[in-house]
Design a protein that fits this description.
Blueprint: H1 11-20, H2 27-35, E1 56-58, E2 61-63, H3 66-76, E3 83-87, H4 93-102, E4 107-112, H5 115-131, H6 134-137, E5 144-147, E6 160-165, H7 174-178, E7 181-191, E8 194-202, E9 205-213, H8 243-267, E10 288-293, E11 296-301, H9 311-324, H10 337-344, H11 349-355
Parallel strand pairs: 3-4, 3-6, 4-5, 6-7
Antiparallel strand pairs: 1-2, 7-8, 8-9, 10-11
GO molecular function, one term: protein-L-isoaspartate (D-aspartate) O-methyltransferase activity
Main location: cytoplasm
Biased composition (Acidic residues): 309-320
């Protein structure tokens, strides 16, 4: 699946293309996509494909196409403090983006069939928390992953505000999926070759909306143990935050407000988005064009500009355009003001690093 939008040269350009094609339509979803670089979830040898609107699979590791994730994020209608269950959580890319919106008082759980993918997701999550400046720009709801078949979730598990399934759901499992939702909750899943949004409007009332045609691998059916019984999946308990952790969240929130107020006083108009560096695209002419007219074929050749008599004119036009366009330089790396402020506080170093979640930068 994918290929609906043009490839980007970096994560921001990919997001620009998704916005232009109306796959990303809200500011919250855009911020989450920009905050987490899709390439970070690829193996090193495949990163050149990270910004294409294509799905990627290597062994058990799988990422859906960016246009699919965009539609899923928009359909989930995420808000701070909600509970989210990701069935087939994979690399954790989607769960991490969701966590940026849910905030510190949300619930973010994932179920993944393959234990090696769980380990991969934990490594990527740890890398994001330790190294990404985006972690300090948001209040993050860290995802928790468990291994198991999502069709074997214990019947006494809690229900969720939002549920997403990343594999094709067979019609006979539709009711099972619906029962994972709280009243007022939203379920997004591939059902009968359509990405489908189901809203639970009452104890036994539902609204269904088909979003777009998709092609997903089907859910893997449970394998029963030798005793004939299924292996029930126990979801993580809803964690109660310690007083120490709540204090850290409150202190970081207060510091962010101070930084915002200082920025407003300095600039008079609040925080501004740092202008993104955009690479200049070079448009190339196609070498050949073939036009089909009914049963006849009309073929014409567009000469290569290097062989054309007008080559010098084209080169002159290009030079004039470059002279008119001011040179684009990459902006300085963004400053992590929260980190700077915490490190400047008259506090013992261990407390500073606790406030920073012991992050490397």
């Amino acid at each position: 699946m994918g290929g609906a939008v043009s490839a980007g040269e970096d994560n921001d350009e990919l997001i620009d293309n998704l916005k232009e094609a109306q796959y990303i339509r809200t500011e919250l979803v855009e911020q989450a996509f920009r905050a987490i670089d899709r390439a970070d979830y690829y193996l090193e040898e495949f990163k050149e494909n990270a910004y294409k609107d294509l799905a990627w699979k290597h062994g058990n590791i799988h990422l859906s196409a960016p246009c699919i994730y965009s539609e899923v994020m928009e359909a989930l209608d995420l808000q701070p403090g909600l509970s989210f269950l990701n069935l087939g959580s994979g690399t954790g890319y989607l769960s991490s983006m969701v966590g940026l919106i849910l905030g510190p008082f949300g619930v973010n759980h994932g179920v993944e069939l393959h234990s090696d993918v769980i380990e991969y997701a934990k490594q990527k999550l740890d890398f994001f928390i330790r190294t990404s400046d985006s972690f300090d720009k948001f209040d993050f709801c860290e995802p928790s992953f468990v291994t198991g078949n999502c069709l074997e979730i214990s019947p006494d598990c809690s229900q969720y505000d939002r549920v997403y399934c990343g594999a094709g759901v067979q019609k006979e499992h539709e009711e099972y999926m619906k029962n994972l939702l709280k009243v007022g909750g939203i379920l997004v899943m591939p059902l009968e070759e359509k990405l489908t949004k189901i809203t639970r409007t009452g104890p036994s009332a539902w609204e269904t909306k088909k979003i777009l045609a998709v092609s997903f691998a089907p859910l893997i059916q449970p394998c029963h143990s030798e005793s004939g019984k299924s292996r029930l999946v126990q979801l993580p308990p809803v964690a109660v935050r310690s007083l120490q952790d709540l204090a850290r969240i409150a202190i970081r929130g207060t510091i962010k407000k101070v930084i915002h107020q200082e920025t407003v006083s300095k600039n008079g108009n609040g925080l501004k988005n740092t202008p993104r560096f955009k690479r200049r695209r070079v448009r190339r002419r196609r070498m050949e064009t073939i036009v089909f007219l009914d049963k006849e074929v009309f073929a014409s050749r567009i000469s290569n500009p290097s062989d054309d008599n007008s080559c010098e004119d084209l080169e002159e036009e290009r030079r004039e355009e470059e002279e008119k366009t001011p040179p684009q330089t990459k902006p300085d790396p963004p400053v992590n003001f929260l980190r700077q402020k915490v490190l400047s506080l008259p506090l013992p170093d261990p407390l500073k690093y606790y406030l920073l979640y012991y992050r490397e930068k």
